[in-house]
C-alpha cells in the first residue's frame, strides 16, 4: 500500500513538472510598434495555440503596444506587454486569462479589491462544464466541435460523445457544431452539466451542384454526385489540389505512382476499370473536356467548385470518355463589385530523406572493365 502511494505521488509530480515545462517552453517572436493589444493577443494565439480570454468591460483591447521579442519566454512576454497597462494574467491549461490589476494603498482598499476580484467574471475559479452530445436517435457524436463564442477556445467530444470544457463565466455561450447537423448555441448560466442533441441539417439538399449539362439542386440528382468543400481543400498544405483529395470523397482513390518529389497523383474513381488501358477520369474545366489534364496547371485558389460524377450518368453525358468517371471543375469568374486585391502564397520543399550511396558513371564503367576485361575489349 505504501509503495502504491509513493508511485502515485511520483506520477503526480512528474505530470506537474511536465505541464510547467511545456508552458515555459513556449516562446514568442514579435516586433510591433503602436499596435493594438488585441492584435498582439491574436499573434500570441497563433504562435502558441493558447486561447486568450478577457472581458471588454475591464480590459481595453485597443491600447497601443510597442515591443520587440525574439524567442522570448511566454511568461516574460506577457509580463512586459501587460504590466505597462496595469494588467495581469493567469495561465490555466492552454488558456490565458487577462484582467486588470487593482493597485491599492490601504488594507481596507486591499480587502475590497480582493473581494471584487473574487466576484469578477475573470476570477481564477473557472466554471467547468461537462456533458454529452448525441444525435436525434441518442447515439453519441464523436468529434463534435464545441467553441466558446467570441474566443479561440475550441474542443471536440470524445468517442462516447462526452466533453469537458472550462468557461470564464456564466455569461459564456457554447456553440455546438458537427458536419451534417445543425449547430446550436447554449448560454451557460448556472448550469454545470449541458447535454445537447443535434438534429440533421437539410441544407445539403439545397446545395447547387454542377453536372455535365448545367447546374441543379442536390436533392434532384438521381445519380452519384460528390462535391468537395473548397474552403477545407485550401487549408491543406499541398502543392496542387489533387494531393488534397485523398480521403475526402467516398469511392475516389488518390495515390502516387512513384515516390519522386513533385510526381503527379493517380486518381481512380470506383476502382480499376481496365487492366491494359488508362484508368484516369475525364476532367472538364469550365465546360471543356480535357483528357490529358495536369493538376499543377490550375491553382486551388482559382477553383470555384469541384464535382465528381461517379456512375452511369457520367457515361450518358460524355460517352466512352466518361467510363472512368468525370471530374467537373468550375473556376472563379469576375463579378460586378468593388475592386478586391488578395494574395496567397505557399512555399514547399520536397526531398528524399534517405538516399543510397551509388557509383558515379565513371566509377561504374571502370568497375565493369575490371570485372570483365574480355567483354570490355569487344
Question: What is the element layout, followed by pairings?
Answer:
Layout: H1 2-24, E1 27-36, H2 37-48, E2 51-53, E3 64-73, H3 74-83, E4 87-92, E5 95-100, H4 107-119, E6 127-134, E7 145-148, E8 154-156, E9 162-167, E10 173-178, E11 181-187, E12 196-197, E13 208-211, E14 214-217, E15 225-227, H5 230-234, E16 252-256, E17 265-269, E18 282-285, E19 288-290, E20 303-309, H6 312-318, E21 326-331, H7 361-371, H8 373-377
Parallel strand pairs: 2-5, 6-12, 18-21
Antiparallel strand pairs: 1-3, 4-5, 6-9, 7-8, 7-10, 10-11, 13-14, 15-20, 16-17, 18-19, 20-21
Structure write-up:
The chain has 378 residues and is α+β, with helices and mostly antiparallel strands. 23% of the residues lie in helices and 30% in strands. The protein has eight helices and 21 strands. The chain has helices at residues 2-24, 37-48, 74-83, 107-119, 230-234, 312-318, 361-371, 373-377, and strands at residues 27-36, 51-53, 64-73, 87-92, 95-100, 127-134, 145-148, 154-156, 162-167, 173-178, 181-187, 196-197, 208-211, 214-217, 225-227, 252-256, 265-269, 282-285, 288-290, 303-309, 326-331. The strands form seven sheets. It has a five-stranded mixed sheet with strand order 15-20-21-18-19. A hairpin with an 8-residue loop joins strand 16 and strand 17 (265-269). The longest helix has 23 residues, at 2-24. The chain is extended, with a radius of gyration of 30 Å.
Amino acid at each position: 500500500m505504501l509503495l502504491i502511494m509513493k508511485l502515485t505521488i511520483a506520477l503526480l509530480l512528474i505530470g506537474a513538472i511536465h505541464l510547467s515545462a511545456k508552458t515555459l517552453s513556449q516562446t514568442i517572436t514579435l516586433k510591433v510598434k503602436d499596435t493594438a493589444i488585441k492584435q498582439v493577443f491574436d499573434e500570441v494565439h497563433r504562435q502558441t495555440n493558447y486561447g486568450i480570454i478577457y472581458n471588454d468591460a475591464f480590459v481595453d483591447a485597443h491600447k497601443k503596444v510597442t515591443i520587440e521579442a525574439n524567442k522570448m519566454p511566454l511568461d516574460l512576454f506577457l509580463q512586459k506587454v501587460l504590466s505597462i497597462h496595469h494588467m495581469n494574467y493567469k495561465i490555466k491549461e492552454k488558456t490565458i486569462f487577462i484582467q486588470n490589476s487593482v493597485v491599492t494603498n490601504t488594507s481596507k482598499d486591499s480587502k475590497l479589491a480582493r473581494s471584487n476580484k473574487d466576484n469578477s467574471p475573470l476570477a481564477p475559479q473557472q466554471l467547468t462544464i461537462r456533458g454529452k452530445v448525441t444525435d436525434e436517435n441518442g447515439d453519441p457524436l464523436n468529434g463534435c466541435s464545441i467553441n466558446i463564442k467570441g474566443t479561440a477556445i475550441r474542443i471536440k467530444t470524445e468517442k462516447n460523445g462526452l466533453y469537458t470544457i472550462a468557461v470564464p463565466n456564466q455569461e459564456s455561450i457554447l456553440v455546438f457544431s458537427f458536419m451534417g447537423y445543425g449547430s446550436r448555441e447554449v448560454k451557460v448560466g448556472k448550469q454545470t452539466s449541458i447535454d445537447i442533441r443535434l438534429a440533421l441539417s437539410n441544407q445539403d439538399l439545397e446545395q447547387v451542384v454542377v453536372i455535365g449539362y448545367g447546374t441543379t439542386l442536390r436533392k434532384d440528382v438521381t445519380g452519384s454526385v460528390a462535391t468537395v468543400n473548397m474552403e477545407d481543400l485550401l487549408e491543406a498544405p499541398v502543392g496542387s489540389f489533387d494531393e488534397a483529395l485523398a480521403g475526402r470523397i467516398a469511392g475516389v482513390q488518390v495515390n502516387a505512382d512513384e515516390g519522386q518529389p513533385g510526381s503527379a497523383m493517380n486518381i481512380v474513381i470506383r476502382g480499376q476499370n481496365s487492366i491494359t488501358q488508362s484508368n484516369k477520369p475525364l476532367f472538364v474545366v469550365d465546360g471543356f473536356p480535357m483528357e490529358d489534364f495536369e493538376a499543377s496547371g490550375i491553382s486551388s485558389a482559382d477553383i470555384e467548385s469541384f464535382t465528381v460524377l461517379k456512375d452511369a450518368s457520367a457515361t450518358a453525358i460524355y460517352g466512352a470518355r466518361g467510363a472512368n468517371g468525370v471530374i467537373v471543375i468550375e473556376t472563379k469568374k469576375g463579378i460586378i463589385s468593388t475592386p478586391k486585391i488578395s494574395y496567397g502564397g505557399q512555399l514547399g520543399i520536397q526531398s528524399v530523406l534517405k538516399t543510397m550511396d551509388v557509383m558515379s558513371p565513371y566509377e561504374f564503367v571502370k568497375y565493369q572493365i575490371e570485372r570483365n576485361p574480355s567483354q570490355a575489349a569487344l
